[in-house]
Amino acid sequence: MKLAAIDIGSNAARLQISRVLENDGVISFKKVEYVRFPLRLGMDVFNSGSISPEGEVRLFKMLHSFRLLIELHECKDYMICATSAMREATNSTDIATRIEGQLDMKIHIIEGAKEAELINNVVVQSLEPDRNYLHIDVGGGSTELNLYVRRQKVASRSFKIGSVRLLEGREQKGDWVKMQRWIQEYVNPGDTSIQAVGTGGNISKLLNIAETKVGPDAISIDELARIQQYVSTFSLEDRINKLQLNADRADVIVPAAGIYLSAMRWAGATEIHVPHLGLKDGIIQLVYEKWLNRKRRKEDGIS
Question: SUPFAM superfamilies attached here (predicted)?
Fold first, then answer.
């Protein structure tokens, strides 16, 4: 059985199709299709407050193509979640209604807390039980922070600080202060066991660029700072041609690195673990849980 997730972010949109695997009663998900499209809704929303007519057309065309892939894979179910840009766009509800009428595809515009919850549901599985973690999820329009103690989430908050928002100069200075104060309130600066966990496309790319790593999926704060400085010395054109970054990654990767670094420094974390998981994986898990509940209700004769 295959399931699909569509994540409409502020910088890019992603389609992931996964096959559900069962081994001795243990369920896992194997990615069989992944498509990323640089939709960049945040460019519209963070500057004008709404999605432009051109942006709506791109969104429609992209979802139409995603629907065809979902149909070709014969997925049992799927879910679409939209985050920061569509949360803030004044016309997002109207656009979502039109698209649902035209494509029969429902867009769920989720709040930051729900976004963090879906990501946390899959990230927590990668955490060691005897360590404390600050989970930093950096998107185009927002950053979600979550504090874990022995795999239990004890605090969580969403901030309007994101890579596209910083690129457009649309962040508020007070938001940085709020983030710093939140971290300093919940993270003990003397906690030497604290480790950062990073999710989002930019931290995965920064890990790939790293020359030295702390294990296969982690880098030190010093290496992350070195990478940020190294990439910043290249022009946008050279980041695309010499570093082979996608155009929509090349301009946001430096401000994104700055968000991870700031959060790590305030928390006193010396390294960051990158589990290569994100919102799309959390959506897949939610779609499976809903499918399973429907199946059980049907078996029990409950309509």
Answer: Actin-like ATPase domain
Query: What are the tens digits of pLDDT across the range 273-295?
Result: 999 899 999 999 999 999 999 98
At the top level of CATH, which class does the domain 127-278 belong to? Answer: alpha beta
Distance, in Å, from the CA atom of 244 to the CA atom of 33, rounded to the nearest integer, reads: 22
At 129, the pLDDT band (50, 70, 90 cuts) reads confident
Q: What is the CA radius of gyration of the chain?
A: 19
CATH architecture for segment(s) 2-112+280-299? 2-Layer Sandwich (3.30)
Going from N- to C-terminal start, the domains of the chain cover 2-112+280-299, 127-278
Q: Enter the pTM of the model.
A: 0.89
Per the CB < 8 A criterion, the answer to whether 265 and 221 are in contact is yes
